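Bit of a strange request maybe. I'm writing a small parser for structure token strings and I need a real example to test against, not something I typed by hand. Could someone generate the tokens for this chain?
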Amino acid sequence: MKKTVIAALAVLISALHLDAQIYIAPHGNDDYPGTIDQPFGTFPKAILEAMPGDTIYVRGGVYELINTIIITAVKSGSEDQYFTLTAYQNEVPLLDFTKQAFGSKGISLRANYWHIRGLQIKGAGDNGMEINFGSNNIIEQCQFYENRDTGLQLSNGSADNRIINCDSYYNADSTDYADADGFAPKLTVGSGNYFYGCRAWGNCDDGWDGYLRGANDVTTTLENCWTWGNGYLKDGTDPGPQANGNGFKMGGGDNGNSQLLMHHAMLINCVAFANKNKGFDQNNNVGSMTLHNCTGYNNLTANYRIQRPLNPGQSLEVKNCVSHDGAVQLGSFAEQETNSWLPPFVVTADDFLSLEIDAAAAPRQADGSLPEINFLHLAEGSDLIDSGVDLGYPYNGAAPDLGAFESPFTTSILLSKYTDSFHLFQNYPNPFNPSTVISWQLPAGTRVELTVYNLLGKKVATLVSRYLGPGRHNFRFDGTNLAAGVYFYRLALESGIVQTGKMHLIR
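Reply from user aminoacidic:
Good idea to test on real output. This should exercise your parser:
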């Protein structure tokens, strides 16, 4: 009876809890109440005091840390009540672990349903962050750099995590320079992890590493991710052949993968360039791999290398992809369609607005999204424009372009009279919760269709499908019934014009 009463009281207290705001600052003190005027001084104190639904605001400044920040499973949230650990407004918190002992991690996330946003994690003795047994977490707009192993690693069955608009760079292990990657969903990782809008560069091993040891038959998806310059140290020197230097290593296993481990990889609109070894690398993975609208450029060994036969029932699909200044080595089992190395295409430097690699490291946009640059974008007149096959993703013009970047140019003469006056505006507000307004300008009356897609290109809603007159039109979109994440809205006119926008639903 006593246990029943205690349990009932716990449920009542939880129900009565109002989502709190907790603050931590470099000048704070754990004897303070954790308010904005009197913030806590340590992360463990703030985490201890937080309950599901609470937000821990991290004020800007440098936090000199030695001990690993551990978030245990007892501090798990739920689908409706995330724990949030976020930078306060536009301030920049730097978690500096450079004095930490080698082998110690920066943050060890062992819980579920956390949203960690806007932190910079530097110099950890091992991983900058490891998601260890943690699932359904969101890691957003974080930077991991100069750590002494992989910037962000997912281990021990961690599944269904979303890594959004994060950067991981100049990570290098100081023993043999053979292990530190940018991002590593590998070894004992779980399934269903997604990376969106992330960049990995200058890591001594690989940009992304999906090598397995202890896990099998898992799936990882990467969307709009860039990786370059891996296999080198921060100063540009090559530490040796043990530093692999691949862009996207999609799997593999020990002893030539004698266990036939499968890491199913789906890469959409991803870019790999100027890596010491391969851009898109099978390693010895024997699971399914899907590459849609990817671009490889100037990777020293090969832009694409996937040649080992797969396990029975598995497949390799490569469609709408581009290669320039690098080899393409695919097995005969590859299902290919409208790739730039297939007839009738011949790719030259003239197909691109720019081949200036340094532009890729430009600062991100205010909302954390990738910078708007010309690098590897198709130039007007390229025959790679409007030459792809429709794979279900939003696109401009008469058909999808080849490669990772959809061009504003079109080969369709029918569209020219509308191009200057038709415009799809950025939704506002963005990010939003739960609703936002999508607006567009029409030069003349026409039938329109406004649809919404998720990250995988699956249509989740048709908002408008009817004739509209000229002028500006507004539509309020309600995302109450959708999961938090990145979505695309696509406006198609009867004439064939298509424009898309990107929006971010938060909780």
